[in-house]
């Protein structure tokens, strides 16, 4: 029998053991703010300097040599490369740890955007971006002053690649959800969208909010449960 089309959904837990904080864990607050208070278009309109500082700090963290892909990122890259049917790794993470081991693979989709990209508020042009952003940063494409924002999907905004994700969900035969709390939609609804013939598996430190929706669940640190499941 041939392998079924595969979808892997990842969240912050897959990068936790690489030294990147999750959103809703014990260390999930940033300078006393909840992510829901800084990751919205309204927060950016009200106080862009604070929102820029939040993303500048996280972008800088990616440059720390200690922050690098872990055994879970590596196992998932190997799985996608070797999978004999269509495979799509949808990450909610805006870090670049999957990218570093997937070498430009089209199988990787960042549904909540990327820390290392910025977008112009006026003309919409998006480009790779590794520097700090500020309220003065001009747009390289159209020259708008202070026109750049992180190329990130905030609450109330449409996640990226939804057409491709929905088409893949309709064909999916194996769905893996890894390191995500299952609290943020539409990602939290993907498991319900594939149910039927598809096999659904949760790999997470602890039961997620949607754990009962999965056919099976394996709980523990991603660097242990993911390689064990994949190999
Ligand atoms: C480990 C581990 C280890 C730890 N090993 N595991 C009411 C009901 C339903 C929906 C809504 C509602 N009100 C509003 C909405 C919609 C809203 C939403 O879902 N809100 C909820 C708060 C209720 N969603 C939106 O607005 C989205 N857009 C939208 O819906 O558009 C309309 C639409 C779309 C499609 C079709 C039709 C209409 C946009 C959501 C944008 C989310 N943005 C953020 C921030 C931006 C990115 C960034 O700054 O990084 O994305 S929020 C934040 O949460 C971030 C994450 O990607 C996202 C998910 O978090 P994640 O990854 O699950 O992290 P945690 O911390 O929550 O969990 C980590 C897990 O790992 C835990 O379970 C740990 O146990 C585990 N773990 N260590 C393995 N070592």
Automatic annotation (TrEMBL):
Its cofactor is Zn(2+). NAD(+) binds at residues 11-30, 92-95, 179-181, 204-206, 222. It is found in: Cytoplasm. The keyword Coiled coil does not apply. Residues 1-231 form the Deacetylase sirtuin-type domain. NAD-dependent lysine deacetylase and desuccinylase that specifically removes acetyl and succinyl groups on target proteins. Modulates the activities of several proteins which are inactive in their acylated form. Belongs to the sirtuin family. Class III subfamily. This is NAD-dependent protein deacylase. It comes from Teichococcus oryzae.
């Amino acid at each position: 029998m041939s392998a079924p089309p595969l979808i892997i959904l990842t969240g912050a837990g897959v990068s936790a053991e690489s030294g990147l904080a999750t959103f809703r864990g014990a260390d999930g607050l940033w300078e006393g703010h909840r992510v829901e208070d800084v990751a919205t278009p309204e927060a950016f309109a009200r106080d862009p300097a604070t929102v820029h500082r939040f993303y500048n700090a996280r972008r800088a963290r990616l440059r720390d040599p200690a922050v690098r892909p872990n055994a879970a990122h590596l196992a998932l890259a190997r799985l996608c490369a070797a999978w004999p049917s269509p495979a799509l790794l949808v990450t909610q993470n805006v870090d670049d740890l999957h990218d570093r081991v997937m070498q430009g693979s089209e199988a990787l989709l960042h549904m909540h955007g990327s820390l290392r990209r910025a977008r112009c508020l006026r003309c919409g042009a998006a480009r790779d971006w590794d520097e700090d952003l500020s309220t003065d940063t001009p747009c390289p494409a159209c020259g708008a002053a202070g026109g750049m924002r992180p190329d990130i999907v905030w609450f109330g905004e449409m996640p990226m690649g939804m057409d491709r994700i929905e088409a893949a969900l309709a064909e999916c035969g194996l769905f893996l959800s890894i390191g995500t709390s299952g609290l943020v939609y539409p990602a939290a609804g993907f498991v319900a969208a594939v149910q039927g013939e598809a096999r659904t598996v949760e790999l997470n430190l602890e039961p997620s909010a949607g754990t009962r929706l999965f056919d099976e669940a394996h709980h523990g640190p991603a660097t242990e449960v993911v390689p064990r499941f994949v190999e």
